[in-house]
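Let us walk through a complete example step by step. Step one is to write down the protein sequence. Step two is to encode the small molecule, nicotinamide-adenine-dinucleotide, as a SMILES string so that its atoms and bonds are unambiguous. Step three, shown after the inputs, is the structure prediction itself.
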Amino acid sequence: MRLKDRVAIVTGGGGGLGEGICMCLAREGANVVVSDLKLDLAEQVAAKIKELGQKALAIQTDVRDPDQCKQMVDVTVKEMGGLDILVANAGVDGLPSGDAPVSPLIEDVQERDWDLVVDVNLKGVFMCNRAVAPLFKEKKAGRIINISSVAGRQGEDLLVPYAATKAGVISLTKSIALQLAPYHVNVNTVCPGIIWTPMWERLAKFGSEAIPEAGGVAPEDVFNLVVATRIPFGKQQTPTDIGNTVVFLASDEASEITGQAINVCGGMRMN
Ligand SMILES: NC(=O)c1ccc[n+]([C@@H]2O[C@H](COP(=O)([O-])OP(=O)(O)OC[C@H]3O[C@@H](n4cnc5c(N)ncnc54)[C@H](O)[C@@H]3O)[C@@H](O)[C@H]2O)c1
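Step three: the predicted structure of the complex.
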């Protein structure tokens, strides 16, 4: 119970990694606000947290909207009695939408797809960090954990806009860590490797259609091939692996860690 009675917000908490992070925080005694664009998903996760005996609240938030981010923090403080931990996890893949060519080439990337991924993954993380900063500064405590990706560690030719946003999250985290250090607020980022979630399901489908060498193989096989060839440990990570790292960064044990980007990727990246 390393986080007993602490209050956490997890954005994008309604599924995938976000759900895993919520459950790990709750198992360590935290009360969790599950924030997501999709309220029904957030409510399902909140119900699972309550089954563990922790307090939980589901909130609909679009992290692109500064007013909604502020409201998320205000409602948390009012309903849960405070806020100690922000996990900025909500993200999108930036893949081609609508009638855009199923292609990773920069000349085929549509401005609307670029704008969406930048708005959610980079501006959204900024908005959530900005929304908690005054509170954390005032109480001279707090933990912020932003979810980046191994894609932010070096270029990804299949995911050009996505990788750019994730590199941005690492830089943003370091700058905010410097600003908040005098207030004893720790700000770190976690870079997950490869986990089969709804996001990776979409990526694998895109890979099977967009990469000529994939020759139309099934999305699951694209995923398994990527895992087998790119991860030294030869297996995917799990939402719990990411949640455990978030718990550590939120705990007293990580009090001397700030401004860091931690890869949780079975050795896929070593920088
Ligand atoms: N799955 C992986 O292998 C992997 C690897 C590295 C990094 N990540 C990162 O982890 C995070 C979670 O990824 P995932 O695989 O669980 O994705 P996912 O698509 O399965 O889940 C993302 C969640 O974010 C929510 N969301 C989307 N747009 C939102 C918005 N504007 N406001 C609020 N919520 C919004 C969705 O409703 C969804 O519940 C993302 O930031 C992603 O980039 C995932």
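Step four is interpretation. The domain at 7-193+238-264 is CATH 3.40.50.720 (Rossmann fold).
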